[in-house]
Structures are given as C-alpha cells and as structure tokens.
Amino acid sequence: MCYGTCAVVLLGACLAGGVPLAGFPAVSWLAIVALTVGPQFLGHSLFNVMLRRLSATVVSVVALLEVPGAALLAYLLVGQVPAAVTVPGIGASNDPAATSSAISPYSSGRSMSSRPSSGL
C-alpha cells in the first residue's frame, strides 16, 4: 500500500512539474529498476521484518551503521575516500556511549526518556 501510494504521488508531482517520463535509454531504466528493487523494496521491507523479530531499539541502533557502512562500501568498491570534514559525522553516528546500553541484554528495555530523572 505504501509503495503504491508513493508511486502515485510521485507520478502526480512529475506530471505537475513537467518532468519528462519517456525518452530515456534502456540502461537508465535498468538502473532505476535496480535501485527500486534493491535499496527501496528490499531495504525497507527487511527493516519492517526485523522490527517484528527484534526490539525497535536494536533495529534503530543497527540502522545507525548505514552511514559508516556506506562510506566503507564506497571506499572498497569505488575507491571513494570520505572528505576529512565528514569523518567526525561518521564516527558520531556510532557513539558507543549512546548505543552500548541500548543493545545490552542486561538493560531494562526502557527507553532513556522513560527512565526517572536524577533530579539534577
């Protein structure tokens, strides 16, 4: 349902904006199909499947690995080295202090916002 709705809204936006929808080479359409099936359908659908099997906290923490994972794949597959100004952002998305208690089997399972304040 979600994918169909998004497709209809996107088609409407393209038509309203006068974006050409034809005349592209076959290789471009193959790239669009690959991007749709791979990262979109599989990525989002697998994320939802994992939410049924794991806690939302664990899934969210694992989702944080998307940024450094993409940087690593870009380096390994195409030799793209991240700019120096982006490296702190890659590291900040995986701050162990912020994530270690969230995935601990000994954690209470409550989110940080539901824990009582220390009164400080």
Structural class: mainly alpha
Approximate helicity band: 55-70%
State the distance separating the first and last CA atoms.
47 Å
What fraction strand?
under 5%
Name the helix and strand elements from N-terminus to C-terminus, one letter apiece: HHHHHH
What is the tally of beta strands? 0
Number of helices in the DSSP assignment:
6
Written account of the structure:
The protein has a domain at 55-104. With 120 residues, it is mostly helical. The model is unreliable at 98-120 (pLDDT under 50). Helices cover 62% and strands 0% of the residues.
Outline:
The protein is mostly helical. It is built from six helices and no strands.
What tags apply to this protein structure?
120 residues; mainly alpha; 6 helices; 0% strand; extended
Describe the SSE topology.
Blueprint: H1 2-17, H2 26-53, H3 56-63, H4 66-78, H5 87-92, H6 96-99
